[in-house]
Amino acid sequence: MIEDDDQWWSPDNSTNPQPKPDAAAADPPPQTSSPSFDLVLENVLENVLCFLTSRHDRSAASLVCRSWFRAEAQTRVELFIGNCYAVSPARVIDRFPRIRAVVLKGKPRFADFNLVPIGWGAGFSPWVAAMAATYPWLEKICLKRMTVADADLFLLASSLPCFRDLCLICCDGLTTAGLAAVAENCRYIRSLDLIENDVEDDESEVVDWISRFPPGTTCLESLVFDCVGCAVNFEALEALVGRSPSLWRLRVNDHISVGRLCRLMSRAPQLTHLGTGSFSSFEEEGDFQNSLDSAFNTFKSLVCLSGFRDPVLEYLPAIYPVCANLTSLNFSYAIITPEQLSPIISSCHNLQTFWVLDAVGDEGLEMVAATCKKLRELRVFPLDATEDSEGYVSDIGLVAISEGCRKLQSILYFCQSMTNSAVVTMSKNCQDLVIFRLCIMGRHRPDHVTREPMDEGFGAIVKNCRKLTRLAVSGLLTDKAFSYIGKYGKSVRTLSVGFAGNSDLGLRYVLEGCPNLQKLEIRDCPFGDAGLVSGIHHYYNMRFFWMSSCKITLKGCNEVARRLPRMVVEVIRDQPEDNCDSVEKFYMYRSLDGPRNDAPSFVNIL
Amino acid sequence: MSTAMAKSSTESDFSGLDYEDTELKLGLPGISRAAATELERKRGFSKTIDRSDNLTAESTDERASAVGKPPATKAQVVGWPPVRSFRKNALKSCTYVKVAVDGAPYLRKVHLEMYGGYQELLSALEEMFSCFAVRKLQGSTTNKGRRLVDQVNGVEYVPTYEDKDGDWMLVGDVPWKMFVASCERLRLMRSSEAINITPRAPPQVGSRAS
């Protein structure tokens, strides 16, 4: 997963509390040379700048002078907006006339965990209205945590003749009717990727969207719909796959049985990325072992395998032939034991990404460590996501991984107990770590051997992993842990904290010590107004700051709002009758266009 | 069962201040959390059977006595652990059952899908309650079947389960898949108390060989 940061503001590493001049809103400087010379210069510039693809470089270029600003705006084709409320659609279409690809992110990440009330915002409608009218050549839209109505998809599909790529991640509001509109009207659709969205229709209103794809050979390259809750028309799907010769990625939902999976696979032997659906047989008659075996035997080019939502474990050996070529394997919905994992993982020498349930235990992780020497990303999810569940993985598994998988860059690890020693070991063995997210599920849980806080472990991570940009902490943590983060975590851009710290000092350490911090999300920590106010010098450099169930009050929030007029400070109430002075949920972000006009009644913008 | 098991969204309504105040501590009121942790550490808790910190104590006293534990109520906190509901719902169908042992003050939980058969389940139970060793009785007419014996005091336990009808049955009576589907909870019952539980099928020689 790529860590993105937008840069409407250039990075401000100084302690200057003033925001950098905002190039988009500034008045043009007086022109001193003749208009025709400028025009030539701009044309030349445009031809050069179109080779700039990195948005950070483009932002830097746009700040050189007015001329460069214009040239850059004329040549930008890819737009990244990390917070949909940081800027209005009107400003965007005014500045950039030639956009072809948009990435737009909405709700704060804690919305995934039900901390953001429904109806908070991040609707796609105003964006699609503006873009559909202004960008007729728009090809690609990627949305994360936005509310996307079917009407939005209708508008998009009917307005954009060249539209090719739609990617929706963790979105809600859409149904199969919206999907049908896209399938039917986007004749050149290349990818339709639906990842962990909430697409739940009423039984009576399900639309057969698969049948709506254009007849004849399609341009379809990627079709991902494992999150769609209702069954699809299988005959139509099979036919669609059969007439899509460019298809390289197909991830089906768990309504597709193994028998049907085999039929799909036989229609698309060129697939490189496969999501297997349920991998079970439901009420289908017959034994699919042979079909599965032959299907996987012919899949020479498969590199990414996922699905296994409810697998019949007897069928798992069918995948053995493809294991050696796999670079990515997602078993995170399959309850498998170490014994069942062993023959699979022992062949996966090329695996770079592995997602798995903790049911495989420390023993399973030892197997991974023994074989997967190229592993870059590991995610270990909990089978039973409660605080008192059985812990199948522990410090033992973490140490094993650190010793076997030296190239590890990204880890997400859920466990019930951990030791500082294990985390320190990982910090020394895995120097390439960019993302370290450890979730000790029991709140305030100390090192289970020494009974000490987990300060030293996380301290070692920030100290030894020089490339670390994303960190999530857990377990019993004192202010000391935050002092380490502030002292050593100079590259940290994203920090997630819960149930940690002793006092405002903890928050201060981080806000004063981490110049690259852009995304900060905190819950249930004893941080109050003093800590909040200590970050005023830095907040303009951040994309957002979320705090919930901490000790901040309206007084502190008001002070921040007063001193930082360009920040939008939202106080979100859970219940209408909530105590007016205490602040249950606080969400703050910079914005070029001031407070949003679609805030619901439970959001108070200071 | 503790009412605190109910999912409570009110937990998140408490400000951090209330949260700390309701936390059980060993020191006097007003003592800082760090100091309380120190106190608890110095007391040197004796280890129970399970060395890990992961005691699934149903009794709230048990939980409060562990180091640095949050409030006595075991209410689930909203959004914690941070797993997306999409994933939680996908795994919801998996059954876990609580395992009780007569005489022990805590419960464990097992996921029956993880095991291929009775032998694996019993091995896991044996490991969990690690002072036991599995022993198969030979030649006993009324109590044929699997037993777990506490090596420390020689007490014999019979694995039993409560099925969906609320009846208590001997573990091992029915085919494994049927057991997984119908088992609501497990109890390791002292043999002396298990005489009222009769096997479903009449005992046959060699029928329960592992």
TrEMBL record, chain A:
It holds the Pfam family LRR_6. It is found in: Nucleus. Residues 1-33 are annotated as: Disordered. Its main location: nucleus. Pathway: Protein modification; protein ubiquitination. InterPro entries: COI1_F-box, Leu-rich_rpt, Leu-rich_rpt_Cys-con_subtyp, LRR_dom_sf, Transp_inhibit. GO terms for cellular component: nucleus; SCF ubiquitin ligase complex. Residues 97-143 form the Transport inhibitor response domain. Residues 40-76 form the COI1 F-box domain. Keywords: Auxin signaling pathway, Nucleus, Ubl conjugation pathway. GO terms for biological process: auxin-activated signaling pathway; SCF-dependent proteasomal ubiquitin-dependent protein catabolic process. Part of a SCF (SKP1-cullin-F-box) protein ligase complex. May interact with auxin and auxin-responsive proteins. PANTHER family: F-BOX/TPR REPEAT PROTEIN POF3, TRANSPORT INHIBITOR RESPONSE 1-LIKE PROTEIN. This is Transport inhibitor response 1-like protein. It comes from Apostasia shenzhenica. The lineage of its organism: Eukaryota, Viridiplantae, Streptophyta, Embryophyta, Tracheophyta.
From TrEMBL, chain B:
The keyword tRNA processing does not apply. It is found in: Nucleus. Keywords: Auxin signaling pathway, Nucleus, Repressor, Transcription, Transcription regulation. Gene3D superfamilies: Phosphatidylinositol 3-kinase Catalytic Subunit, Chain A, domain 1. It holds the Pfam family AUX_IAA. One of its GO terms (cellular component) is nucleus. Residues 50-72 are annotated as: Disordered. It comes from the Eukaryota. One of its GO terms (biological process) is regulation of DNA-templated transcription. Signal peptide: none annotated. Residues 94-202 form the PB1 domain. InterPro entries: AUX/IAA_dom, AUX_IAA, PB1-like. Belongs to the Aux/IAA family. Aux/IAA proteins are short-lived transcriptional factors that function as repressors of early auxin response genes at low auxin concentrations. Homodimers and heterodimers. This is Auxin-responsive protein. It comes from Apostasia shenzhenica.
